[in-house]
Every structure is written in structure tokens, then in C-alpha cells.
Amino acid sequence: MASKRPFVFRRNSSRSTPTPFRDLASSFATRREIFRSFLSLQQGWAQQLLKHVQTLFVLLVLLLLLLLLLLLWLLLLWLWLLLKHVQTLFLLTQVTSNHSLKHVQTLFFA
């Protein structure tokens, strides 16, 4: 004969069988975790973007300084060439005032 056990009303405490309230709570917890991870990813992404922008700004400033240095060098070269040109013209006027034009032609175009 089979033994009869008395019926005992038990509350469903096992987590393996979800209740509607537990489903809702876990759903909210999951959404909250997803939102928090999304925010942390956004913050990390923003920090990385800020680092890249700072690096690009520094590179831009260095490039502008290099361009300024190049322009300064070109200005000095232009002034030096202008000075050489003025010296040549001065020497040419001295030669033409002291000697004949034929002598200048043989001096410069020979």
C-alpha cells in the first residue's frame, strides 16, 4: 500500500521556477545593468575621444609652429637674396661709373 503524505502548502521559494513578480524585477535589474554598462561605455568613449582631440590639438599647434618657422626661414632667405641683389647692383653701378660699358659687358657676360 502506498504511503500517503499529508498535503503541505509551500511557498514557491525556488528560483528555478520564476513568478511574474520575479520576472519583472529581474527584467528591471537587467535593464538597469544594461543602462549602467551603456553609460560606462559612453563615458569611456567620451574620455577616449577627448584624449584624441587633445592629441590632435597638440599636433595642430606643432604643425602651425613648424609652418611659422618655415615662413620665417623663407623671409630670411628672401632678405638675404635681396641684399645680394642690392650688392650686385651697387657693384655694377660702381663698375659702370669707373669703367666703360664695354668693360662691364666683358666682366659679366664673358
From TrEMBL:
* Alphabetically ordered keywords of this record: Membrane, Transmembrane, Transmembrane helix
Q: Which residue ranges traverse the bilayer?
A: 56-81
Q: What is this protein called?
A: Uncharacterized protein
